[in-house]
Design brief:
0% strand; 18 helices; 441 residues
């Protein structure tokens, strides 16, 4: 029996309750292990890396942008690999690659000092840029890209009518874990120094997540002799929502020719752009608006609470409404969050920042896992979601760079925040036409 056979090391169909819930639990854990490649996983290392590598804020942001955009370009191929290999194998490989990259990052300071001692000082900054740029590329591709995409897709493979509930359950834990990540990473840095913190995370990936992914993950319920949701719920639900019917399995080329794909993908991309940027520069933004480091980071907790409530609400109502209405609400939350950040030193501004970004984050958590299998089918889910993930990752690299340029060359963050308030407003209007392509069939 093959090492990857769905009945090895046990038969999922023999579990006492629907096995898809095991997929949800371990997919959620898998997304937590993507934190080293997420922006909040780097936010506490930003000032350390600037000092250790001698890079300016714009220089480090540019390296982050180049590495992230390069990883985003790689992701459509990784999406196709998901369809070819299956989620189980890709999850294990991406976790092991993440661990290897974390070991590289732990050595990057030593590598820079070793190389810079043998080269002219004038090109030392170029070497630093290349070293950290490679690190950004690899960690964003493996952790934020491949691992996150795989975990979301696996949940989408195992659920249909209960997909929203499953995604919301996962989002509940992911949201709070992501908000607590900077505090946890700060503790690791204090306890083990920054290079030791990365080694601890690498060890946890190899010893915990990689074995867990192989042990629990299975590619599809059909592969294991089951069906989505554990039973056909269409009769029970009465098929009242035509958006729940799949008439055609879209190819990637067909999907990206629809207006709906880009309305959702660009909205997700903007959320990635904005949330990554303000997280990456969170300490600097806090200083501009009179917040201490601890105070500004503390706002992530209520923001996460709102994200969870919104994600659960979207998960509960998604089968009874059209997803474009939820997308509009998500984009309007982004508008409020950007305006609130500009007025962060006022009470209304603080509330708008927390509530708006929390609402937008909750919408992103729910919709990013729901829309692709529902609108385009599961047959090429990896290829289609890979294009979206590519856009999300590329946007997450551009965001910190533009925010850094605004700060360093324009004297503050207000110019880029103005742009960040306008873009989701335009996307909210465009979302009015983001209908399910299955309706036309």
């Amino acid at each position: 029996m093959s090492f990857w056979h769905p009945d090895k090391p046990f038969r999922p169909v023999s579990r006492p309750f629907f096995y898809g819930w095991w997929i949800v639990v371990v997919s959620t854990i898998g997304m937590l292990f993507s934190i080293p490649g997420q922006t909040m996983g780097f936010s506490v290392f930003t000032e350390i890396l600037m000092e250790e590598l001698g890079l300016s804020r714009v220089g480090l942001s540019a390296a982050y942008c180049v590495g992230t955009v390069a990883s985003g370009v790689t992701l459509p191929r990784l999406g196709s690999l998901y369809d070819e290999w299956g989620g189980r194998k890709l999850a294990v490989v991406s976790v092991l690659l993440t661990a290897a990259v974390l070991v590289y990052l732990s050595l990057i300071g030593k590598l820079f000092r070793l190389v810079s001692s043998a080269i002219p000082e004038t090109i030392a900054s170029v070497v630093a840029f290349l070293l950290i740029g490679i690190g950004f590329y690899l960690i964003r591709m493996a952790a934020q890209g491949a691992l996150t995409m795989t975990c979301r897709n696996l949940m989408g493979e195992w659920f249909d009518y209960r997909r929203g509930i499953a995604m919301s359950f996962s989002g509940l834990f992911v949201s709070f874990a992501f908000s607590a990540a900077p505090t946890f990473l700060d503790f690791l840095i204090t306890r083990f120094d920054h290079d030791g913190a990365w080694l601890v995370l690498a060890g946890m990936s190899v010893c915990i997540m990689a074995p867990l992914a192989w042990f629990v993950f299975r590619d599809t319920p059909e592969q294991c002799g089951m069906v989505m949701d554990g039973a056909d719920l269409s009769a029970k639900k009465g098929e009242v929502n035509p958006d729940m019917r799949i008439h055609h399995q879209f190819t990637r080329e067909e999907a990206i020719r629809t207006f709906t794909f880009w309305a959702f993908a660009l909205s997700f991309g903007f959320f990635s752009f904005f949330s990554t940027a303000f997280t990456f520069h969170i300490v600097s933004i806090g200083e501009e608006f009179g917040f201490q480091k601890g105070d500004i980071i503390a706002l992530f907790i209520p923001m996460a609470a709102i994200s969870v409530v919104v994600s659960l609400f979207f998960g509960a109502i998604n089968t009874r409404t059209r997803l474009k209405w939820l997308l509009i609400a998500m984009n309007l939350g982004a508008v409020a969050g950007a305006i609130g950040l500009m007025r962060l030193n006022t009470s209304p501004g603080g509330w708008a920042y927390v509530v708006g970004n929390g609402f937008c984050g909750g919408g992103f958590m729910a919709l990013s896992g729901l829309v692709w299998p529902r609108f385009f089918g599961r047959e090429r889910l990896g290829a289609i979601s890979g294009v979206n993930m590519s856009l999300v990752v590329i946007a997450s690299g551009i965001g910190p760079l533009l925010f850094g340029i605004s700060k360093q060359w324009m004297g503050g963050y207000v110019p880029i925040l103005l742009m960040s308030a306008i873009l989701p407003g335009v996307l909210a209007i465009a979302s009015l036409w983001a209908d399910n392509p299955q309706r036309k069939l």
